[in-house]
Amino acid sequence: MAAGGPNSGQPQFFSRAGDESFSHAPLIENTETDQIVVPDKKSWKNLFAYMGPGFLVSIAYIDPGNFETDLQSGAQYKYELLWIILLASCAALVIQSLAANLGVVTGKHLAEHCKAEYPKVQNFILWILAEIAIVACDIPEVIGTAFALNMLFSIPIWCGVLLTGLSTLLLLALQQYGIRKLEFLIAFLVLTIAICFFLELGYAQPDVGEIFYGLFVPQLKGSGATGLAISLLGAMVMPHNLFLHSALVLSRKIPRSIPGIKEACRFYMIESGFALLVAFFINVAVISVSGAVCNSPDLNKEDQMSCSDLDLNEASFLLRNVLGKWSSKLFAIALLASGQSSTITGTYAGQYVMQGFLDLKLMPWIRNFLTRSLAIVPSLIVAIIGGPSGAGKLIIISSMILSFELPFALIPLLKFTSSETKMGPHVNSLAITILTWIIGFLIMAINIYYLITRFVHVLIHSDLQLAAVIFIGILGFSGMALYLAGIAYLVLRKTKEMTHLLALTTEESERLSIEPSKTSAYNLPSEETVSMQLPQRIRTTNDVN
């Protein structure tokens, strides 16, 4: 049902509790939008209509940043850190499911919720942090693609960085064909990455027993292992992915009934679980190949030196020397597929963040150009000045930044999905709430511990004068206090009360129908949000299949 205010240029929509004629009211009635319509009937076949967003999200778990940290993990600690990948993947499934639920239930993605929830100054700070996280995620993708082009076609790294800007044109070309075509492309690229690394396993032949031991027996030996563990965690659970997943689920037009929303949440969790399982196997394969190759007794001194400081570029030469030319080519193809698919999803995340936090409506090519430029400029500078080794170090730094930025996306997500005033009957259960907060606090505790210990270590072993050490120490610990204060603010701040569309009582619904001008569009996805990814026409699952 549509109800518009007297001076409203656009119709507003709401559902009336207890009235079947309104319980399945569509989320958006706009025939110009290419949403995939899910039938209003219970059937396992509906799962196919929901397949897609999880694969776009899973790309962030197998991007070049992950490959870099996976390679170093295997080279330095063999299979000892595989348990981090297992834990991070399980945590990622829980967290990503919450992000999907937020979008499905409320009709708004995470960035839009943050804008509605927080005051202007805090909202602006969260936007800046989100943009930094997206740039930190984008840098490994740009550098990884440049490395892949260098491996396959001997193109200089800095030229490869510039060429990655063409992915913006690819994204714009894909947008005209709708979200389904993009999802199929990403799924194909994920499959390509999986095939390449499973073939690499055949070349490397790692010890299966040792792999299982590393997966299920936690080990963390030394500060170096702690640093790599945090890098693995930062590369696995990415803040921009929470914004992205909560927005991508809006590409499905679901029945706006309580059973319909529950089914959507359940199927999105299944779909995300399958996609993340594929990503998990790929990460395990990368670490296993690296661990088997770098711990081989037949390595010469040159290859041993490569393993001591392994990056994406060195990995290609190492694989070629140890396993053969085809192994190196397979790695390059997988890296290229990973980099290109990651740039597409990263650009989408940048669009949603900018639109959600700032309500900034730009032409698509301008949004894409801005997002890509923020990553290309620092990558190009480092590639020219530092060369391949400098670019490889930049990837590790980017992964660390992502890990430290995660609380500023994760805490709002946990707060919103645990709020009955926002989620109505679909609020997190007590068990899920406790589990997710434990996961969040563990991640934050590990980050803070590592940050403090590394900072103190640098200060103690620096060659600076005592006055300089004291000054830097004051600045560093002041920054840490500010970091903790920001986390505490997000945790302790009371959630703003906003009634969920399906949590309304009959009396409230009748009042809203009498006073339509007061109807909140808070629970409805904005036309700008949907049109960023879905151009032309409404389709049903029959069209999809």
Automatic annotation (TrEMBL):
Entry annotated with the keyword Glycoprotein: no
TM segment ranges: 47-62, 82-104, 124-149, 155-172, 184-204, 224-251, 272-293, 330-349, 369-388, 394-414, 426-452, 464-492
Bilayer topology: Multi-pass membrane protein
Gene Ontology cellular component terms for the protein in this record: plasma membrane
Transmembrane helix recorded as keyword: yes
Database matches in InterPro entries: NRAMP_fam
Cell compartment(s), UniProt: Membrane
Residues forming coiled coils: none
GO biological process: iron ion transmembrane transport
Record keywords: Membrane, Transmembrane, Transmembrane helix
Any GO MF annotation of the entry: manganese ion transmembrane transporter activity
Protein family membership: Belongs to the NRAMP (TC 2.A.55) family.
The protein's name in its UniProt record: Metal transporter Nramp6-like
Source organism: Cucurbita moschata (Winter crookneck squash)
Top-level taxonomy: Eukaryota, Viridiplantae, Streptophyta, Embryophyta, Tracheophyta
